[in-house]
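During the second year of the project, the team shifted from modelling isolated chains to modelling whole assemblies. The rationale, set out in the original proposal, was that interfaces cannot be judged from single-chain predictions alone. As a representative example for this report, we include one of the complexes processed in the last quarter. Its constituent sequences, exactly as entered into the pipeline, are reproduced here:
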Amino acid sequence: MSTQARGLNNFISDLRNSKSKSEESARVEIELAKIRKKFNPGDAKLASDGSNPSLSSYQRKKYVWKLVYIHVLGYDVDFGHAEVLALVTSKKYSEKMVGYTALSLLLRGSDPVMSRVIDTMKSDLTNAPSSSTNKKSNAPKNDAVQCLALCSLANISGLELIQAMHLEVQHILVSPSSTDQVKKKSALCLLRLTRTSPNLISGREFAPHLGNLLSQNQHLGVLTSVLSLLHGLALQQTPSYEILIPHVVHILSLLVMKKKCEREYLYYQTPSPWLQIKLLKFLQLYPNAVENHDLSTTGGGSMVGEEHVGQLIGVVSKILMETDVSDSINKSNADHAILFEAVDLIVAWGTSCPVVLREGAMKLLGKFISVREPNIRYLGLSTMAKLAQIDEASVEGAKNHQATVLVSLKDADISVRRRALDLLFVICDTDNAERIVDELVAHLVVADASIREEMVLKIAILAEKYATDLRWYVDTILKLITISGDYVSDSIWHRVVQIVTNHPQGDLQGYAAGTLFVAVAPARCHETTVRVAAYILGEFGFLIAERPGMSGDEQFRVLHQHWFTVDTGTRAILISTYAKLANLYEECRPLVAPVFAKSKNSVDVEVQQRCAEYAAMREAFSPEAVEDLLREMPPFEDKRRSALELRLLETEGENSAAVAKASIPSEVEQQRALLAAQMLSSGPIEEDMVNGMQPIEEQDDELVSKPSDEHPEDGDVDRAVGADPSGDVDGEGSAGGGMSQDDQANRVLVGIPKELIPAMRKAFSNLCTSPSGVLFENSMLQVGVKHEYVGAQGRISVFFGNLHSSPLQNFKVRVDQPDHLRMQMQGTQDLIDDGEYDSPGCTVATKTQAKLMILLEVTAPFDDAPSMRITFDTEEGEHHDYPLRLPLVATCFMEPVNLDPGAFMQRWKSLEGQDRECQEVMKLPPNAPEIDEKYMDRVSKIIVDGLKFGRCQGVDPTPWTVSGAATFRTGAQDMNGNNINVGCLVRVEANPRANAFRVTTRTLHPLCSKAIKNVSLVSIKLAM
Amino acid sequence: MISFILMVNKQGQTRLSSYYEWMDMQERVALESEIIRKCLSRSELQCSFLEYRGFKVIYRRYASLFFIVGTKADLDVRALDAPGSTAENYENELGLLEFIHSLVETMDRWAGSICELDIMYQLEQVHFLLDEMVMNGYIVETNKSNVLRPIDLIDRESKKTEGMFR
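Output from the structure prediction step:
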């Protein structure tokens, strides 16, 4: 037993007797100095590897162990590496052992000295005969040396070591000559190596080897390790290891059904619970394994053999139904460990799991969360939160236990309270939000500090998410501030301001102003209250100014009483509020002026600047401008992921149940979003946000007014062709689909009426969504277009018909070839002007046509239509120059995709984000017909037939939305030679009351999103 | 995976620590002392789990000794968005709780009833025993005979060599 060196024991005793931490560290310092001296005495010559050859084996081991001990105590040890290496390279097992243990504890893989152990380690691993020179080294001992090396390699796992040795480790694992002891260690060693450098192993090649290991091995230690390895590998390349499911199910069923297990591996009569857990964890990686399995019949398609699926479900039901509480706590724990893992498997299967099992699990968990045993209750709560997220029915199931969960919220144990809070968060919805939130708020009063911040954040999110009445939301947040204002972060109160500002409907703003006035009236209140109140009163105070006791100067007074107790950040907000009050109410000005005068000299730059600017504003600008500056703020942009959710993500990590929950918008939220859209279209910022059509119209007018003075004489060929100004001017503003082809038509043409423009625009839009039609027509020329597309390729035929009484001469067409299109053109001789030489053009006789055919392939997303310029002369001596645009838009290359609602929503969510999403609200002109179901039918027809999207009906709960999915096909290839395609989703939401539409597109490519949005808007308008 | 295993006395002094993920000494000392403080302050009636800075900690008390196991989601689950990531991918809590017990039982079989002093003065063997049961953060063996066999080997060898050094 007592094999430890006496010197080491003495040292440990000394440390143990130390009365204080400083005494201990002094003793450690002395010891370190002593060891340093022993290792490098100065006079003695060191060996080539840097170790001191005069140390005896006993001394060396002793000092290295001291270093290890010192390290364990939490002191840095940065010397002695040479001695450690000397031990590792020793031939003696006992020295090697100390060496390897010290190596794995003291050093990390990236340490440069590691390169010096590679050779030794390699020869130890491969069982090299070098150690057989030692007489005592017989077979089992080599096995032990191998284990040491493996263990150390696993613990260190430096990149250099891995590169040098991973092949050996793989070989040891699969070699039939390796002992069980070695196999189990090499499995975990390999796991560590693949962790450090993934893709070390090709799953397809390695999976069969693992299969052999699983099927041939009866040694449960080896199986446990191999399963850990398998789980790690399968996480990296899940599909490659799917073929091993039958093996795993087989082993599991032997353990569970037959209890086939060596006696030594029974843990309180349970066959190795840790192996069972590993097996179940592996199966969790394959959520589709039991898909389509029918409990009653055989048949149904799944990757795994039906037999195994049946077996697996049998095993899981047995675990679920037959786990009992036993007298031995150890037995009970072991069995429940397996049970919880089985429920996790059910969670992983999700909706594809037989309902019986899910309901059974929920029932069990319901029992667990009401027991007294804290461990079981803790796990019951946390597992139920996962189970509840499967679908509607499971949330309903969990909601039945709401009362029980609320009890756990008051538990003495913070761990349990956290889980209860998390579960409540998950089961909260519109029905029970008020109850749950009120309970949480009530509990907040007594909750201790460690959980308060988390609770406040979650309450704020729930209140916002499920508030049927936003006034309740405002009240709740106010309560939060009152109860624990210190934990209400800025993002929470900013959110209140945002929501109040963005919801002018109802009396929310007035209500908020009134409530906050009351809240801020007492002499003492939380600073956050002052901030919210200052902002809200500044914005919406005028709504309550008529109420008794709440006039402008009263508002100033209740706010200003806090002036001396708040910090400068709050003062800055107050100053802006004062400026707004002073602007609205004459009587406030004398009150505000002295504050500004005084604060102009504030040491805080922000306060100083605000005061100076507000004070100087009246002199510097006209009254209208001041009025404008101090008007209430426009609604905030609605970011899909609020700051609160981000905060939650920060604190809880991606995998948290709460985060997943928070990111799904609730029904109420969706309704609110619709209302917000309505509000937007009647709000003050209508001019610049409503739609993209308007700016273009303005632009057109501008250009139309110019031409007469720019082109006084006709027939100036060179200039008209060379100048080409307006064709590109609208490149930027082609939000409406590039319908401004006509502007230049006006500027050069004599006798083309301006009235033609709307008709031409309509013709262009029409053509974007229909296969053929007339693009342009006047008294001389008719341009017809026919176009068809297959995938990324298309064929466009353009016909130029002469309607004039005389031939059109020098008739030329020049088509712009943008980078994103590969084009081939052919047509009537001399028609095409490729810009290289001065072609004379062709002549189109009366009542005949010239033809142009374009074959094209798209190579990248784009959002503008290519231009086509037509020039010709008439016999009358007029020169005509029409810059048009081909109706070639992104949606031409769509291929419909039919998604089921779940898949649609999943993709929809995954494409969230600034540059992937495009959204625009369009208000129909006043003379437009009402939006009714017939209109919506036309809209959906346009999305399906015109834009070539696959309609996803299941996602549209009301007739007022249309959702679709499509793929944008390009001919460009990625590195692997596959064509690049862009998945596109579109959603049109109508608001009949406001007579407005909102179009949202989400694609992987910003240009695609923009282009689809534009085309949809134009087409919807067209459907009027 | 298991990130660390600590054996701590009721005064909060670490008697043995084994980390399976490299951590800077400073960070390690801070983490260790905070986790130990939390564990020691909990009552017998509370559950055996606590969450701290992304770790799920499972602990068990035996008279004056605390066994503390810290776990984290698997290394690559944290990086990858693996299909199983809806479940938190922690180690099974009750499983580890019983693993601690199995560890203690194994130590008992080796040293009679294990106590703080055994751990301090048999540092070498305890480390070795632990290495036989846990390797790089995963359970490798729970069969007590298998675990103890290599330790017997050292004992035998050290007896042979004893004469040479003492």
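Chain B has one domain: 2-159. The first strand of chain B starts at residue 2 and ends at 9.
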